[in-house]
Prior knowledge:
- Chain A is an alpha/beta fold.
- Chain A folds into three domains: 2-30 and 157-258, Phosphohistidine domain (Glucose Oxidase, domain 1); 44-151, PtsI, HPr-binding domain (Enzyme I, Chain A, domain 2); 267-600, TIM Barrel (Alpha-Beta Barrel).
- Chain A contains 25 helices and 16 strands.
- In chain A, the strands form two sheets. Chain A has an eight-stranded mixed β-sheet with strand order 1-8-7-3-4-5-6-2.
- In chain A, α2 (80-90) packs across α6, α3 (96-106) packs across α4 and α15 (377-390) crosses α16.
- The radius of gyration of chain A is 27 Å and the shape is globular.
- In chain B, α1 (11-22) packs antiparallel against α3 (65-77).
- Chain B has one domain (11-81): Histidine-containing Protein, Chain: A, CATH 3.30.1340.
- By secondary structure, chain B is an alpha+beta fold.
- Chain B contains three helices and three strands; from the N terminus they run αββαβα.
- In chain B, a hairpin with a 2-residue loop joins β1 and β2 (35-38).
- Chain B is 37% helix and 18% strand.
- The mean pLDDT of chain B is 86.
- At the A-B interface, α2, α4 and α15 of A face α1 and α2 of B.
Amino acid sequence: MTAHESKEKKILQGIAVSPGIVIGKAHLVDRSRMKIFYHYLVDQKQVEKELARFREALKKTEEQLVGLKNRMPDHIKQHAFIIDSHLMILNDGMLTEATEENIVREKINAEWALSKSVNKIRRIFGEIDDEYIRNRLFDVENVTERILRNLAGEEQESLAEITNRVIIVAHELTPCDTTEMNVGKVMGFITDVGGRTSHTAIMAQALEIPAVVALEIATREIEDGDLLIVDGTSGEVVINPDDSDIIYYQEKHLRHERYKKSIAKTSHLPAETLDGHRVAVRANIEFLEEVAAVKDHGGEGIGLYRTEFLYLRSGGLPSEEELFEDYKEVAEIMSPDPVTIRTLDIGGDKFASDLSITKEMNPALGLRAIRFCLKEPEIFKQQLRAIIRASAHGNIQLMFPMISGVQEIQQAKGILEEVKQELDDKGIHYDPHLKVGIMIEIPSAVTMAEVLAQHVDFFSIGTNDLIQYALAIDRVNEHVAYMYQPFHPAILRMIRAVVKAGQSVGIPVALCGEMAGDPLCTGVLLGLGIQELSINPRSIPVIKKVIRLFSLKEARRDLNRVMKMTTAKEVRNYLRKVMAPKLAELGLEEHLHGSQGLSAQS
Amino acid sequence: MKVTNNLGLHARAAAKIVELVKRHKAQLFLRKDDQEVDGSSILSILTLACPKGTEVEARAIGEDSEKLLKELELLFEGKFGEGQ
């Protein structure tokens, strides 16, 4: 460690996307543009030579790309299209012919000629009023960089040749990068940009190594070989830590490992209270790849499959077959446990090419989710067909998001019937008893819950949005985020009303917001009569354990007290007092301050 | 021809046009308003910036140009395989 003592210690905060702690050396993936020199070619012979050199570099680039595509592991094969488009750009006249023309006409070296044609493309693309298309410039620059490296005869930054165990530091990681990478040597990932659904996050979770994204300045602050601590649970990255940091994080790492082991032993036991009341603990997932984690952590099905991911990646809308295969696979793996698929919960603004949809002042109150689907019935029908067809292969349930009243249910079910009729006509099989439910996340749906219950087979309360809409709090707005209070008496009363409405007609009521995964809330939710909790796969073992510490009788008694309280603060303080001994028993004291985590994560 | 797929002439759709042109001997040109581009260049097609609802004119020169245009029409009608 002595070598690092002279270097300044810094701490960066990003978004934690894959848990765990690692301490190791940084490996910087340098994407900065290479310096380009200008040469004037004196005679025709030199021009010929330069052309040949350029064509040789193109050939080499093409070979590399084709090789990359062939080596892509199966689980990211869906991204192969990115490489196809890179190949097409590589053979595009605007890039290659233009460069050759520049070499011949202006008698300049290949590097300079290439950068001239790229500049021209940059100018043309910069004028286009379509963000998606402007972003394709990133692909052009990626290809250009490869050609330049080949021109320089420089080895591609070879991630395959990492020989020591390192922490990868990059501005952003693409599927190409991770395909090239010798992942066995990677201890963790950190990136400047990205979010919970970025490629880096998915890869890190699949590999079960820690990752932190959205650090903004990681590549600027970190030098190759710097000692780093990456905490994929808190989102902290310590650059050039001192000895006390290292000791602190090593202990935290050991605690995390011990805890993981202890949890694994009990995660498959049912979530049953001391007096024999069973609650289903299911998982919220976003990608097919997460199913393994659900199984490992003892999830009894999928309570919320968010389906936006396949629609948001680059390269366009997914086909019905892609959707069908994805849903079918999740259903088959989880069978006989249920998989609740939520139809597209997306704003129209995400379909960037549709310029008719202008930027909305209030996207949370705008054209999204079921509203968007009812306005774009073709997109909606395609997804419904895929879901219904997949229902023949497992226990699938269908769920509509953002329902505000009966009319939307009628419209959505009307379209569902049309789709079923089409499938009947074609003789395609599906589950005729497919259950159809709705998310309860808009206050009007809470008020109308008794009526809505007569039209559907189940409810799932989405507390994240419900709290936001009920308390009129934009949780992303730092000035009011502190008012985002799950324990607000109004929220507890709303949940109680929805459960009662469900019970009155005998349909189950689930809860799938972050409240479901906060151990501080578990007792209250049990007392309220929630029958199913749907949470992040990694929280399943904890919540199951907490449920096993309660008796239903005790939970109801606590709830009666809580329902008499008039402020969120009073409720939270009371629950902390009640939960302290229980969480201490499980070694989970840190969750006592869980409300912090509740407002920090989105 | 009218662009009817939801995403417009995006990278995937543009790539399909380029592939189609490569399979033919004829040259293809696409025109929007007063801008005409080479149909064998994915970047050029992208620069036309054609969202859903755009009218595009196609012109082909060469021996199998009729076949090329017919297949192009099918591609547009089939919404570039983005599903119905």
